[in-house]
Amino acid sequence: MADVREQRIYCAEQIVVPQELPIILKHYSKEVIRNNPVSIYDFSAKYFRDLIEKRKNNSDKHIMNELEKPDSSSRV
């Protein structure tokens, strides 16, 4: 099968959702609601930068384990 990124999407069967995406979006959404940021753009940028850093610093751990830990994000 050719690379999905090179094809037009005509039906749901062509869409491949990464296994981690739903849990990442769930935790991200909870943090947005919990923090009620003044700027959702700034908050989102910081949230995902922090998530990338956690992933880099804990390369031996699965990202889902990191998401399960309570986050002490500050309100942006």
TrEMBL record:
Keyword Kinase tagged: yes
Signal peptide residues on this chain, from the entry's feature table: none
Coiled-coil stretches: none
UniProt-annotated location(s): Cell projection, Cilium, Flagellum
Superkingdom of origin organism: Eukaryota
Keywords tagged on the record: Cell projection, Cilium, Flagellum, Kinase, Transferase
GO cellular component, one term: motile cilium
Protein name (Swiss-Prot/TrEMBL): Kinase domain protein, putative
Organism, scientific name: Tetrahymena thermophila (strain SB210)
Lineage: Eukaryota, Sar, Alveolata, Ciliophora, Intramacronucleata
